[in-house]
Specification:
Elements: H1 11-33, E1 35-36, H2 38-44, H3 50-62, E2 66-69, E3 78-81, H4 83-89, H5 106-121, E4 125-129, H6 130-133, E5 135-136, E6 142-143, E7 152-155, E8 163-168, H7 175-190, E9 196-201, H8 206-214, E10 218-221, E11 224-227, H9 230-233, E12 236-240, H10 248-253
Parallel strand pairs: 8-9, 9-12
Antiparallel strand pairs: 1-3, 2-3, 4-7, 5-6, 7-8, 10-11
Length: about 250
């Protein structure tokens, strides 16, 4: 026996649904992400098909709330929020400027956005991208800081709800460079800025990075070389990009 067809949606219900989709896209961009791709928008809209995501973006473009930016043929088109889009979302911030992003930074940004959405689907919350962590100064620039500015901060699911610094590590750096970076993470631990660091590593290189960090005995904190204590070492972990966020049992032990 054939299944009954689902009831048809009214015109007002269809309009409300389209409005909610556009609201979700703008809220994501206004949170500090500024731009994204169709693939990420599919995730934002509950893993919808590409055509549906594209229709929502083109509707926002038509109304002046987003603008497309095609960097080159090898990279996906970016869709960035405009000043009007920020105003509609009720958020103060810098609008997207086409042509400002380096092509090499785009895959990094989009991978991190996918990780964010996977985490939020599993109960992680309060995601803050780098752009929201940088202190603005006069003229629209960002103030240089001595402390470590991670790629993002996020709060793990309840009941713990601890603040985790998320770092996307595309290339493995030198030992000396990690001595500086780890030292700055330790400073942030001591100042209570965050409690854990999760390195997300693509291309199956997370074990390579883990071995690199395990080999470091001393780190540079406030200009001085000091032992890399176990109480800090165990708070900095490496994860395969495709496997993050970690399973619930792992989250409870880290």
């Amino acid at each position: 026996m054939p299944r009954p067809l689902p009831p048809r949606m009214s015109a007002s219900a269809i309009a409300d649904r389209a409005k909610e989709k556009r609201r979700a896209i703008l809220a994501f961009l206004a949170s500090g992400e500024r731009c994204t791709s169709v693939k990420v928008v599919q995730m934002i809209l509950g893993n919808c098909d590409r055509q549906a995501a594209s229709r929502s973006l083109h509707a926002l473009k038509r109304d002046g709330f987003v603008v497309p930016d095609k960097i080159n043929l090898l990279l996906p088109t970016l869709w960035g929020i405009t000043a009007e889009g920020l105003a509609l979302a009720g958020v103060e911030g810098q609008p997207f400027r086409a042509g400002r992003l380096k092509p090499s930074h785009i895959p990094h940004r989009l991978d991190l956005q996918c990780s964010r959405l996977r985490a939020e689907a599993q109960g992680w919350s309060s995601w803050v991208p780098t752009s929201r962590l940088m202190a603005p100064v006069k003229g629209g620039a960002t103030k240089k800081r001595k402390e470590k500015i991670p790629d993002s901060l996020v709060k793990s699911p309840p009941p713990r709800g601890i603040v985790v610094a998320v770092e996307m590590e595309i290339t493995i750096k030198s030992k000396s460079r990690y001595q500086d970076i780890l030292g700055r993470h330790v400073q942030m631990f001591e100042e209570g800025k965050y409690e854990l660091v999760h390195y997300l590593v693509p291309n199956g290189l997370h074990q390579v990075l883990a071995l690199k960090l395990a080999d470091i005995k001393n780190i540079r904190v406030r200009g001085a070389l000091v032992p890399f204590e176990d109480k800090y070492r165990r708070r900095i972990t490496c994860h395969a990009l495709s496997d993050w966020p970690p399973p619930a049992k792992q989250k409870e032990t880290e």
